[in-house]
Amino acid sequence: SEDFYDEALKERIDYPVVKDELNPIFEGCYTTHSDIKKANRQGENLLLTAEALATLASLYGYSYPHSSLKEAWEKVCFNQFHDIFDGSAIHSSYEYSEKLGEEAKKTAQNIIEDSLTSLSSHIKTDKKNKEALPLIVFNQLGWLRDDLVAIKMPQEAFSSFHLIDEKDNLVPFQIEEKKLVFVAKKVPAFGYKTYWMVEGEKAALSEVKLSINKEGKMESADYLLQIEPCSGVIRRLYDKKMQKEIFRPSSLMEGNPDTYSIDKASNLLRLFKETPHSMSSWVIGNIEKVVNLSNGCQIKIEEEGPVRVILGINRSFNESRIEQKIIFYQDLERIDFFSKIDWQEKGSQKEGIPMLRVSFHLNFASPEATFEIPFGHIKRPALGEEMPALRWIDVSQIDYGVSLINNCKYGHQVQGNIMSLTLLRSPYEPDALPDLGVHHIGYAIYPHRG
């Protein structure tokens, strides 16, 4: 390739130069056919994890699975063919692509399990107290990490126990749905940390500053979050340490919470209706109707413990239903949102195309939008265009910002202080029913200083 450019420069040196990206085009493709988008994200994440752990294990005698990884990557990359990945192929093609995605996923999971088994066999887990069960937490990423651990309770688990780390410090935990849940702190890059379940009475912990009530108020040492019980939207998010209102105030009258404006609220789910148009899988058409999904919500406390609290929000519209969990942590600065969406909205040439978005209204004076792209990030004007990004976008000012992170989506919008994630679309061509059914979607907000 170097010779080619040398020859080209001999002919002329004033070639036209493109210094910016060529997006957006066919912005509907960022969301259409959510199944293939999720399969791609899972495949990429699992295979990168498999490569990292297999590489570490190979340092201790594990045979690195070159051919298996190559074959799995070829299946993931095949599904990135533009008519498949952008959701504009016929229905039957996705049956084959789903099979490829599942095969790649299974290969990666097997390699991960084998690598972890090999690595664990070289780790000494002896403790002075023989009545202790070790738990090894691995970090497959290249930076020091705090994150949630949620594992099935081991069969060997004691009926009563407390959890300690390598320095015998007590670790807060809770058991929910037969899973042990705790936060692993400062796990080294490409490394591990060992914890022990020690038989005996559950030890008392220092004061936990984590609370939730049935009116939708959630509070930790870092944040105060207020959910509007009737609509399920976020009315307020306050950073206690920075003394900052993160979201735009949504009350029309200061001090009167009953006068809030739904259009200014956050975690606002909105159903859009595009007018009928050609190339419905490829193009987001003119919007003729927008409905805030704010009526008839039911909220309830689903978990309450020293590690996390969870508020469940259920809502129905038309023939569809959304079950959402908002997760607030004691020792993590992000707030997670996990949604199970039974999507029964159908697009047609007569009725148009339904589309679902979630939006957050920030409270910044001079916001700047940044989008993750392959191998880097890019700043873009916050003009409300549908733009592609990988796992996150960020809106910040000089001293503060908020990232919006997701586990399986690609279509985003930023318009001034409003950041949005497109969750689902139902075009009608060439696949008449691309996304009908149940979807599991995760996203998170991560407020940060600077």
Automatic annotation (TrEMBL):
Record's keyword annotation contains Metal-binding: yes
Gene3D superfamilies documented for this protein: Glycoside hydrolase family 38, central domain (1.20.1270.50), Golgi alpha-mannosidase II (2.60.40.1180), Golgi alpha-mannosidase II, domain 4 (2.70.98.30)
GO molecular function list: alpha-mannosidase activity; carbohydrate binding; metal ion binding
Keywords, in A-Z order: Hydrolase, Metal-binding
Glycoside hydrolase family 38 central domain: residues covered: 27-101
InterPro entries: Gal_mutarotase_sf_dom, Glyco_hydro_38_C, Glyco_hydro_38_cen, Glyco_hydro_38_cen_sf, Glyco_hydro_57/38_cen_sf, Glyco_hydro_b
GO terms for biological process, alphabetical: mannose metabolic process; oligosaccharide catabolic process
PANTHER family: ALPHA-MANNOSIDASE 2C1
Name of the protein in its database record: Glycoside hydrolase family 38 central domain-containing protein
